[in-house]
Amino acid sequence: MGKLCLIFNTPSLYRQLIYKEIDRVFDCDWYFGDWDANVKSFDTKSLSHPVRFLHVRRPGKSWFYFSGINPLLRKTEYDKYLMIGDVHDLATWRMLISKKIFHRKKKIYFWTHGWYGKETNIERMIKKMFYKMADGVFLYGNHAKKLMIEEGFKESKLFVIHNSLEYNTQLSLRQSLKPSDLYSAHFNNNNKNIIFIGRLTEVKHLDLLIKSVAKLKGRGEYYNITFVGDGTQRKQLENLTSQLGLSETIWFYGASYDEKINAEFIFNADLCVSPGNVGLTGIHTMMFGTPVITHDNFPLQMPEFEAVIPNKTGAFFKQNSADSLSDTIQEWFNVKGKLREVVRRDCYNEIDSQWNPDFQMKIFKSVLDL
User: Fold this and answer.
1) Cα 158 → chain centroid
2) Pairing between strand 56-57 and 65-66?
3) Confidence class of residue 117 from pLDDT cuts 50, 70 and 90?
4) Nearest-CA neighbor of 291 among 215, 345, 221?
5) 139 with 46, same domain?
């Protein structure tokens, strides 16, 4: 069996563990692009196999070109290629066509979002051509797989692999956690505690959470909110908190890069609310046993929304509706308020069964013939 050639845009920090597992198990070489400065990266010296960086050119606003990947197709030591699978990469288009004509025995696999459900007719046509030339597509979620099957893709070429974080480190932390008075000591009350952890940016629509808790206060329902993170919207959110008379029950803790501190915040919270797209915030909070409420417009969601199982690991509200979010929070606690440990175990089970590197490696090994 030949070597596996891995081609990705950047050595993303959140993928460090799964990349290290691939590096440990497969005979492989790594190729990364020299871009995405806004994405936190890990030190590739921690990988045991060769790592090379390729220059990324941008001939247009949306399109780019990975210089140097097409000659990799001619290298006899590689028989399989696992790539980011970005439809905007002109070099990948060229590589797919060359493979189809000159290197039929080699196999190209993508690791990508795939379908969202919001594609225009032109986008659907382009993406169909692109993904159908691949030998297989590893997808983040079942939602994308379902949509692609409806678009005419063969189910046998679609593999749901989900996503993961630093699972082993987080599992060790989880096993050491115990309930504490973190929130009651800070707020000096016994309200239920809602958390959001992540960047405080406009796309997160965190004002909806504050407005919803204000509406609940008007109904005689009292909740605390803790924001663990910082960002461009922090000042506006602080001003809104003051305007709505919630300063005593909203805590702007600020950014934290200490996972032990983050774990304690999440573990002791009762609920995470992510009014915008949930993304990896949902995996992070469920890892430490805290359920998630997020919006219901799935074509605009990130694939991690699938970890939210209604009435079990969280709930969905009508997108952009503070009234719906208020009702959903209230209903959640009416039903699950006294079942905190049951919910905690449900969250653990969801992450431990599907959203971790062990699950991902099982899929990789079965498909890539290891």
Assistant:
1) 19
2) antiparallel
3) very high
4) 345
5) yes
Per the structure, the count of domains in the chain is 2
End-to-end Cα, the chain, rounded Å: 9
Do 157 and 195 lie in one domain? The reply is no
Report CA 364 to chain centroid distance, whole Å. Answer: 18
- Do both 85 and 52 map to the same domain? yes
Quick one: how far is CA 312 from the chain centroid?
20
- pLDDT (mean) for 235-263: 97
Per cent of the chain over pLDDT 90 is: 92
Q: List the structure tokens of 255.
A: 């950014």
42 exposed, middle or buried (CB, 10 Å; 0-12, 13-18, 19+)? middle
Q: How confident is the model at residue 36 (pLDDT cuts 50, 70, 90)?
A: low
According to DSSP H, which parts of the chain are helical? 16-25, 90-102, 121-132, 142-150, 167-176, 182-187, 206-218, 234-243, 259-268, 279-287, 322-336, 340-354, 357-367
Burial annotation 331-360 (CB, 10 A radius, 16+ → b, else e)? ebbeebeeebeebbebbbebbbebbbbebb
229 Cβ contact list (under 8 Å, min separation 6): 196, 197, 198, 199, 200, 254, 255, 256
Residues 361 and 348 in one domain: no
Report which DSSP code applies to 247: G
Same domain, 127 and 223: no
Domain encompassing residue 342: 169-354
The pLDDT value given to residue 60: 74
Q: What is the mean pLDDT of residues 241-264?
A: 97
Least confident piece of the model among 29-33, 58-62, 266-270: 58-62
pLDDT band at 1 (very low <50, low <70, confident <90, very high): low
The token pair that represents 23 in the structure block = 């590096």
Three-point CA angle 205, 211, 215, nearest 5°: 150
